[in-house]
Amino acid sequence: MATNSQSTLDEVDKDGNVKRTESTFRGTVSSSDPVHKPEAGRYHLYVCNACPWSQRALIARALKGLEGVIGVSATHPTWQKTLPDDDNDHHYGWAFASPDDPPFVPPGGYGSVPSGPGAIPDPLHSFKTVRQIYDMAVGPGKMSKYTVPILWDEKTKKVVNNESSEIIQIFNTAFNDVEGVGNPGLDLAPQTDQERAWAEEVDDWLYNEVCNGVYRSGFAKTQGAYDVAVTSLFAHLDKLEQVLSTRRYLAGDRVTLSDVRVFPSLVRFDEVYNVYFKCNKKRLVDYPNILNYVRDLYQSYPEGFASTTDMDHIRKHYYTSHAALNTYAIVPVGPNFLKTLTEPHDRDRTF
């Protein structure tokens, strides 16, 4: 069954610019929602530890203490054929594995990649690929892109939401009254009208020019598209450096959803984006305020930010999944950025 299935590498316009497709499922969980009520054990989170959008959801889940209420499954880091028995279907994407399964061969046919301990198979339906989740929800061939994270409702056998910025909002509020939540009193949302206005502004440019900007640089298919994207990326990293010179966290003196949104992109920068996506004008370590901000989050809230950072899966995924960018799936030695994050920061003394 040939399909029009695609990944972000395929979402490019005639001028070589990456044009990411918006997420399809935008439902919510709420006591007032007619279908999706908050209940322990009803919902399951499907992720890839390597994916920055997935890490947003994992951070929020951990900070709120939802581990006993919402289960999780995590894919192998290396893409595989999502319909392996169909010679006419050439889509590669997320596939599940157990840590002790045989290594996966990358899409280019070179190399051998073990999953490592971060892989968690699906306990509900023994899904082998993320594509199968969407096929169960809407029917085979109805979707063209199979993304994570996915918030799945096991009662209705439907996808509730696959947009990370909305899933973290759901996790922040929807389950506070459910028994078993570890940190129901934590509120990661901005509290005042001024904070909300600032969060809307900063979230917008951080997503478009930094979090998605690295992909617009790395997956660009013309020099012109790359030049525009990478120039804007570093202009906005400079802007972020300035913002963080005046406040400990993005909203001020406490962690909010804005920090949850941007941390995954920043923690991947020196290990992956600087090299693989050709974002090499500067490294993150060349921005003292940003570096110490990331250190602060990593060290001060380890249950959310450190515990969900799987650098093994991050490095394996990017360097082995895109044959067009790295045919032989060679994973470079890297700068050991996680060690850098354990070094002292100055944020608590500065602010």
Automatic annotation (TrEMBL):
Glutathione binds at residues 94, 145-148, 163-164. Pfam families: GST_C_2, GST_N_2. Residues 14-23 have a biased composition (Basic and acidic residues). Coiled coil: none annotated. GO terms for cellular component: cytoplasm. Residues 192-318 form the GST C-terminal domain. It comes from the Eukaryota. Residues 24-33 have a biased composition (Polar residues). Residues 1-34 are annotated as: Disordered. The active site is at 51 (nucleophile), 215 (proton donor/acceptor). PANTHER family: GLUTATHIONE S-TRANSFERASE OMEGA-LIKE 1-RELATED, GLUTATHIONYL-HYDROQUINONE REDUCTASE. This is Glutathione S-transferase. It comes from Ectocarpus siliculosus. The gene is GST.
